[in-house]
Amino acid sequence: MLNIALFGPPGAGKGTQSERLIEKYKLFYISTGDMLRKEIAEKSQLGLEAKSIIASGGLVSDEIIVQIIEKTIKENQESKGFLFDGFPRTYIQAYILEGLMIKLNTSLNCLISLEVDEDESVARLLERGKSSGRTDDNESVIRNRLKEYYDKTLPVLKFYKDKGIYFPINGANSIDKVNNDICDVLQNELSKRLLNIVLFGPPGSGRGSQGMALAEKYGLEYVATGKMLEQEIEKKTKIGKRIQELYENGQLVPDEIVVQLIEQKIENSKGIKGFIFKGFPRTLVQSYILDGLLKKHGSAISEIIEIEVPTLELISRLDARSKTDRCMPYDNSTAKIVKRLQEHETKTVPVIQKYNQQHGVKKIDGMGTFEEVFERLSKEIERGFRKI
What we know:
Elements: E1 2-7, H1 14-25, E2 28-31, H2 32-42, H3 45-55, H4 62-75, E3 81-85, H5 91-103, E4 110-115, H6 118-132, H7 139-163, E5 166-170, H8 175-191, E6 195-200, H9 207-218, E7 221-224, H10 225-235, H11 238-248, H12 255-268, E8 274-278, H13 284-296, E9 303-308, H14 311-321, H15 334-358, E10 361-365, H16 370-387
Parallel strand pairs: 1-3, 1-4, 2-3, 4-5, 6-8, 6-9, 7-8, 9-10
């Protein structure tokens, strides 16, 4: 999702640029003025409250504005992003938008400011006044409007400068040049976006084979902790020797080692479209680690997918596998199979529940042939790509 705030003084050309950006990037346009008029026209509860305030000569409160914005975003979740025009206008509203974005599990990607000096703005608005017939397009009124804009906007710009997502654009250039400069900023932002999938599923659900196949099809990096640990042992690295010692002593590999390997994987993976994580996180602690690790590298989890298979089917699959050359040491008896399923229930299910509250978990039916399940998963991956 691409979320933009477009700033600029009166006469900077925000309206013209907004139209082009909405068309090119398929964004939903959010103008607080337009939304207020819509709510009032529909006679919604928020609209009636706003109408009453306006009728008495008051200003509509931030509390009402943020509820209308939240309602609008929730009603347009299939949009590829939102373009905010006229919000946030104040330093306080910047904090409000920040909190709202966190609540909706998204963020503002960039604030684009069309920079036009005061004399240029005045000249443009005076010229517009000749054709528009607007009585407020006279120099005295214009300069007052500009003063109000700069007084309120400078603290907002500083807020986003401090966050590192403020991008000034020379608005004095031609319409096409300004548009190209904005698009350069947005394309650079989009190029940073990775599709990061956490693939859950109990033992026997097929998430390993499905994860590898999905990674190959969509150009994603497959991150399986078990496989990474085995590779370190085969390479006889310093970490690999430590892992071997832990295995021989019947001990679990600590998160400290696993995280180090995952971070190396992230740092060394260039030119990819994202990651599929399988086998990590297994616990609530690991889920917090992964969130922090991705954030450190300027990324985040995009989709959580859980492959669902009935318990009896899982036992049947794992028992059948135990009789083949694909048998794992932890699958060679019914007791071990049941223990693995119980561990998934007690340790990993709470992780899935946490992510369901934060992100929403897409549940995929794991019954059927490999191809049938793969097709269901592929549809979800493709939906994820469209979303980012």
